Amino acid sequence: MAALLVLSVVGICAALLWRFARPWRRSRRIEGILKQQGLKGPPPEFLAGNSGQQYQMRIENQGKVMETCHDIVAHVTPEVVLWSSKYGKPYLTRSLDVPDVTFFDPDCAREILSRQFENFPKSSLQVQVVVDVVGHGVLGLEGGQEWSQRRNVLSPAFHTLKLKAMYARIRECSEKLVAKWKTCVPHGQAELEVSHDLKKLAADLISHVAFGANYEKGEQVFHGLTVLGDLALEAQSYFWLPLFSYYPCSLNRKIWKVKREIDMTVMSLIHERRRSSGNYGDDLLGLILEESDKSTGFSDKVVVDECKTFFLAGHETTGSLLGWTLFLLALNPDWQNRARAEVQEHFKENSQVGALDKLKLVGMILYETLRLYPAVSEVQRVASKDTVLGGIKVPEGTQVTIPLLWIHHDPELWGADANEFNPERFSQGAAKASKHPSAYMPFVMGPRVCIGQTLALLEAKVAIATLLSNFAFSPASSYKHSPRMHVIIDAPRGIQLVVHKLSE
Ligand code: HEM
């Protein structure tokens, strides 16, 4: 009996060694090839690589308040500034055990995201975080044929003309916020923390756009996803326990229950629509069901996962764009006045959707906001075969990082005023705004560009135009500037502004 036990333990140890030793040896081989080409980086720690150091530096800065300026790269991603100045560009790090090269050149970004797109899928670890919360929607697929088929079916639903049909709903949601803020400023002006309400507006917008008249179900999904997000974060501290997500412990049972409730909410809506004899409705859910019928057809589970994905991907991102835009307009009254004049000329109470095309300055302001405060600070991919980037041989299995925030603030690309708010640079479009046509990528680029880009900009244009028609904004003395990367680049202490009601 004892011999059997010893044999089992030895067997398990050998299996674990085999399981972990192979990838470890492979990672060291890749690192060797990269180092031979002159790449350098910070010394990695056992198991954590350089991930712990990166996390520590970011956390330390999160507690600090910085001067209110837009030179935020060293505050939000301190490790990028430190390591690039110490080890050069590109530099080599270890993300847990995986060798990672950070490329700063927009030409390399274009190779990774566009030209050699098929050689750079997402890594399984990267998509697992998304899958844990919203399942296997398009955001949670590594790449390959399944992703491309899914994207082909979904893309027509996000076509500009179809989205424009949602204009009235988007305007209605924005008007609701105006009504609320009017009650908050009974004496003409008041100091408000606006980021919370703007996130709520973004949630409202996606609920109405995705589910139309059934938007209350969208609100239920939001509530569920928020609870799930917190539980998933708690579960991450057990990542070292093999197969933890299958243990029937109380945390996992809570997670499974919330997941079931969200899925049932969306599923009931899908069944309702399917029963309505082919007329699925002109909201996002209706458009997806229609497109799915035209092709091979999605299973109901896939439609559920895609809906959850839109809620996850389109909520915080759009909320953050709205918050930073008002913040920047408050700091730049000249641009605020110019934008308001444009809005007052073209965006009247009874304006139709076509009026949005005339809001050129508002469009430029949104672009400049997404340059200075993009939702994400970096993009990661993994090489699925040996390739060459910027003259460097990149072996299969190497992770590559594009420091998007750093590139958006690089004076060599954007000029001496790279850290200033100057929407004028976008007057000839995004490709001509900098010295490199691919230096601007708040929605990334190439085949995997954000599918909701047009929708996000449409929502933001309507919301900002509606708010500018009714209020003026100026900085509040209580505001503390401390942007951080927390899933997206946000303002953890809120965005306090003085909101002035305009005379009717
Ligand atoms: C200002 C608002 C937004 C910003 C800045 C933004 C940014 C991004 C970025 C950077 C990515 C690429 C992530 C990566 O590849 O690692 C992405 C992907 C995606 N976004 Fe957005 N997004 C916004 C709004 C939206 C909205 C409103 C929706 C949908 C309703 C949406 C849906 C998606 C989806 C489904 C993907 C995955 C696409 C794919 O992998 O094929 N996003 N977004």
From TrEMBL:
Q: Which GO terms describe its cellular component?
A: membrane
Q: Which UniProt keywords apply?
A: Heme, Iron, Membrane, Metal-binding, Monooxygenase, Oxidoreductase, Transmembrane, Transmembrane helix
Transmembrane listed as a keyword: yes
Subcellular localization: Membrane
For activity, the cofactor(s) needed are: heme
Extract the GO molecular function terms from the UniProt entry. Answer: heme binding; iron ion binding; monooxygenase activity; oxidoreductase activity, acting on paired donors, with incorporation or reduction of molecular oxygen
Among its keywords, does the record have Isomerase?
Answer: no
Query: Where this protein primarily resides, as one coarse class?
Result: membrane
InterPro entries in alphabetical order: Cyt_P450, Cyt_P450_E_grp-I, Cyt_P450_sf, Cytochrome_P450_Monooxygen
- Residues bound to heme: C450
Question: Which Pfam families does this entry report, sorted A to Z?
Answer: p450 (PF00067)
Similarity comment: Belongs to the cytochrome P450 family.
* Protein name in UniProt: Uncharacterized protein
